[in-house]
Amino acid sequence: MKDLSPTPDRPNHLPAALTVPVEDFCDHLSTLRRSPHTIRGYRADLIDLMAHAHTHGDDTLPTIGTSQVRTWLADTRLAGASPATMQRRWSAARVFFRWAVDEGLIDADPSASLSSATVPKRLPATLGVEQARHILDDAVTHARGDESPRGARDAAILEVLYGTGLRVAELCGLDVDDVDHSRQTVRVTGKGNKERTVPIGLPALHAVDEWLSRRPEWVGPTSQRALFLGTRGGRIDQRVVRRIVHTHLRAEPDSPDLGPHGLRHAMATHLLEGGADLRTVQDILGHESLATTQIYTHVSTQRLRTAFRQAHPRA
């Protein structure tokens, strides 16, 4: 099966008339502060589209027609692509050609008449409130069993992720000064460099205090003001955080294999089940659209239905 994952490699055999517009488009995305991950994905998909067009005789952007974009997407599907991959590639082509029209590089958008692939909605795996409390308590106890600074750091990471619902990149970007103990809040820099203030509970604050008492043992020339450090003293890497969460939660027999985003899902779901309104949860999570937050209402509804079927005599 063909590997359809995005790769940043630039093929040398493509004419500049096809590759330069892609590079200019990626520069445009950078000015819009799109994430490097998004830009890499779009760039890889578009280079693949240009290679497909070149193979079929198109050496300039204006010569690429709807049929070429359609056959490129069809080849992607025949190669075994998932609906999510199809959606990503359609989106890359759609946004690129709209930009090209706006820039005067082409007269018409060849992807305009093509419909997107439908990505089935999947409810995120999550934890029940009591299950989360039990698993997190045991995981934190296990982390603190390591008497080195690592134990205090890992415990604080677990508590902060569940206590605030931060994305893993947001947690890694925290500085010491971002934690306001008096107000029990954390200043977070989210997507698009947008700042928001998130409440943080006492268990997470206490865990952060324990880590801060050990943090000087790892401080080095590259530490600066980073809240969470790696063993070499630099700001902690996202891969390390994911490994910490997987390692400690996997050690619990009743725990699903959740990563940092699983703790974020659990926190959001439990807030809604506890009576928080959707708009508040949206602000805490840093979602641009309320529709993104609404998936957690689906999780809560599904749990209610399951409980109803199990408990009601006439369900």
TrEMBL record:
Tyr recombinase domain location: 122-309
Domain Core-binding (CB): 16-101
Keywords, ordered alphabetically: Cell cycle, Cell division, Chromosome partition, Cytoplasm, DNA integration, DNA recombination, DNA-binding
Record's subcellular location: Cytoplasm
Record flagged with keyword Cell division: yes
Record's keyword annotation contains Transmembrane helix: no
Principal localisation: cytoplasm
Domain of life: Bacteria
Catalytic site: R167, K191, H261, R264, H287, Y296 (o-(3'-phospho-dna)-tyrosine intermediate)
Family: Belongs to the 'phage' integrase family. XerC subfamily.
Function: Site-specific tyrosine recombinase, which acts by catalyzing the cutting and rejoining of the recombining DNA molecules. The XerC-XerD complex is essential to convert dimers of the bacterial chromosome into monomers to permit their segregation at cell division. It also contributes to the segregational stability of plasmids.
Assembly and binders: Forms a cyclic heterotetrameric complex composed of two molecules of XerC and two molecules of XerD.
Official protein name in the record: Tyrosine recombinase XerC
Name of the gene this protein is made from: xerC
